[in-house]
């Protein structure tokens, strides 16, 4: 089949977008908003299929085994290129077994604590942790996630003790945090925002060097006594290796159009996510550079699997 014929006939059925985390987490939210808009422009439904587990690897591996015809895609976060630095025996190659489609968004992480916590600043957190060794637990969306590595990096930078508690996604971790089972969490802005807005959680600071556009009132960790502290996460779409280039281009174009829609932009901004919409070539280069960056962070932070 020629490229022109492929483009003209694709898609002629619903597209399955595998999200390797539970509903309600940041990967799910950012993917779902764009998928809904793509369904309008691409001519077929783009259906979210949540397949959580193993730090996103169960759903990701499923996609590698799918027919590369553009009907099974992966929506994942930066953990996609973090996992290889932490898991020595992965059953797939996070770069070689996928074709990058587009980066959806860049997102700062936000340090959150329960609403009734005595911790109201980064300084408070450091003092509390030093006064309560062995009693500070921080949650994450899973071992080796950006949330996990942010916590490990801060622990080392601040010289404090914190115990990492991994969850199968951000949503259940946030629930336990609001309930007081955890003392803090570095979470993606999109998933933490609803609980911050409802008053269940208190936002303390963001992990990027610049203040977040969505919450300019929040200080950065860098300006709170830790110069150079800079961690963010991102979300993207991939297809299985071997998916025809014209289909990849069509998907990327549709996603980019969705990311320019004022309603999508408004939803992303409300979540604290900044739309990107890169080309497949741009995203492929970004994936390569990010894999190296996160590998360096894993080594420097000393992060281990729990």
The CATH architecture of the largest domain can be given as: 3-Layer(aba) Sandwich
The structural domain count equals 2
Oligomeric state of the chains present here:
single chain
Shape: globular
Q: Which blocks of ≥5 consecutive residues have pLDDT under 50? A: 1-5
CA-to-CA gap between the ends? 48 Å
Q: Indicate the CATH class of the largest domain.
A: Alpha Beta
CATH superfamily of the largest domain: Bordetella uptake gene, domain 1
The rounded Rg comes to 19 Å
Q: Could you tell me the number of beta strands?
A: 10
Mean pLDDT: 92
- The share of residues in extended strands comes to 15-25%
Question: What is the string of helix and strand elements?
Answer: HEHEHEHEHEHEHEHEEHHEH
**Computed structural class:** alpha/beta
Largest sheet: 10 strands, mixed
Structural key phrases:
10-stranded mixed beta sheet; 306 residues; BUG; Bug_dom1; 11 helices; D-Maltodextrin-Binding Protein, domain 2; alpha/beta
């Amino acid at each position: 089949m020629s490229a022109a014929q492929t483009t003209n006939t694709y898609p002629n059925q619903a597209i399955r977008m595998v999200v390797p985390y539970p509903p309600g987490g940041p990967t799910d939210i950012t993917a779902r908003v764009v998928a809904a808009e793509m369904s309008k422009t691409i001519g077929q439904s783009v259906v979210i299929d949540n397949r959580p587990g193993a730090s996103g690897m169960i759903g990701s591996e499923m996609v590698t085994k799918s027919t590369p015809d553009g009907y099974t895609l992966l929506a994942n976060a930066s953990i996609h290129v973090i996992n290889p630095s932490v898991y020595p025996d992965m059953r797939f190659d996070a770069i070689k077994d996928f074709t990058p489609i587009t980066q959806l968004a860049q997102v700062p992480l936000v340090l959150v604590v329960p609403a009734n916590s005595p911790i109201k600043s980064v300084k408070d957190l450091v003092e509390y942790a030093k006064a309560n060794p062995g009693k500070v637990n921080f949650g994450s969306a899973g071992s080796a996630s950006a949330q996990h590595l942010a916590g490990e990096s801060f622990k080392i930078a601040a010289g404090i003790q914190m115990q990492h508690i991994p969850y199968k996604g951000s949503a259940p971790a946030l629930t336990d945090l609001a309930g007081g089972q955890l003392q803090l969490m570095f979470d993606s802005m999109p998933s933490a925002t609803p609980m911050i807005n409802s008053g269940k959680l208190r936002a303390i600071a963001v992990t990027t060097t610049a203040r977040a556009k969505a919450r300019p009132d929040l200080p950065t960790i860098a300006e709170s006594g830790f110069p150079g502290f800079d961690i963010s996460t991102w979300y993207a779409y991939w297809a299985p290796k071997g998916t025809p280039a014209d289909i990849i281009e069509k998907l990327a174009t549709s996603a980019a159009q969705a990311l320019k829609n004022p309603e999508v932009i408004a939803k992303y901004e409300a979540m604290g996510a900044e739309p990107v919409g890169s080309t497949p070539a741009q995203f492929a280069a970004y994936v390569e550079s990010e894999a190296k960056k996160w590998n360096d962070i894993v080594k420097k932070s000393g992060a281990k699997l729990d």
